[in-house]
Each structure stands twice: as structure tokens, then as C-alpha cells.
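Incident log, support desk, overnight shift.

02:14 A customer reports that sequence design results differ from what the structure should imply. Their input is reproduced verbatim below. On-call engineer (initials T.W.) acknowledged and began investigating.
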């Protein structure tokens, strides 16, 4: 059984930083694509960042230069380092993984999802 468990969310002020973690069981973080989505009640779910089996990373334009995705294969854990946070980064952040194509990952067609961790950025 595959489980993705996120943690690290919280409330910060504009310009602050947070580090999200996603502990994975039953699935290797070095397999296929794994990464982060976010969603608010007002917006559709959007892909934030992902990393593939070779370690190549991809980012949404809105977070490039501020967020960094990484993984620890030994701990089977995925991370998202978020710096220079803005109020528009406020959302529930989800870890998502799947044996899908690059395009389908960004479309949200992932096999596995976590329960989410809330990030709130105040101005």
C-alpha cells in the first residue's frame, strides 16, 4: 500500500520560509515523477514542482527562483524548500506521485496523493 504523508506546513509572514516534507512508503521517491501540487478553495489545483527518476526538476513559473524541490532516497522522503513566501502562496500543499508522463503529471493525473499540509502566508 502506497502512502504519502506531508508535514511542515504552517503560518508565516511575507518573506518567510518553510520546508515541507513528504514521507513515502510503498513507492520509491526515485521512481518516475513525484512532486507537489497546491490548491485553495478559490483556485484550481496547480502543479508547483516535480522531480523525475533522473533527478531532473520542474517548477511552475510562479515559484521559480523561490522554491526548491529535493529528495532523500535513503529516507524515501521528498522536500519542498519555500523561500520568499508571498500571500498568494497560501494553499493546501499535496505530495503527488505516479508512473505517468511529464505532461500528465502536471495535469494532475497522478496515481498517489497525500492528505495535504496547509501553508498560510500573511501580509
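02:41 Re-run completed on a clean worker. Output:
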Amino acid at each position: 500500500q502506497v502512502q504519502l504523508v506531508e508535514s511542515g506546513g504552517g503560518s508565516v509572514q511575507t518573506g518567510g520560509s518553510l520546508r515541507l516534507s513528504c514521507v513515502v512508503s510503498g513507492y520509491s521517491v526515485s521512481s518516475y515523477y513525484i512532486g507537489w501540487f497546491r490548491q485553495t478553495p478559490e483556485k484550481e489545483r496547480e502543479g508547483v514542482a516535480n522531480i523525475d527518476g533522473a533527478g531532473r526538476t520542474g517548477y511552475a513559473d510562479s515559484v521559480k527562483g523561490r522554491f526548491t524541490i529535493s529528495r532523500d532516497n535513503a529516507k524515501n522522503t521528498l522536500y519542498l524548500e519555500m523561500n520568499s513566501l508571498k500571500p498568494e502562496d497560501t494553499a493546501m500543499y499535496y505530495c503527488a506521485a505516479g508512473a505517468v508522463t511529464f505532461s500528465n503529471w502536471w495535469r494532475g493525473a497522478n496515481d498517489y496523493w497525500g492528505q495535504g499540509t496547509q501553508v498560510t502566508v500573511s501580509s
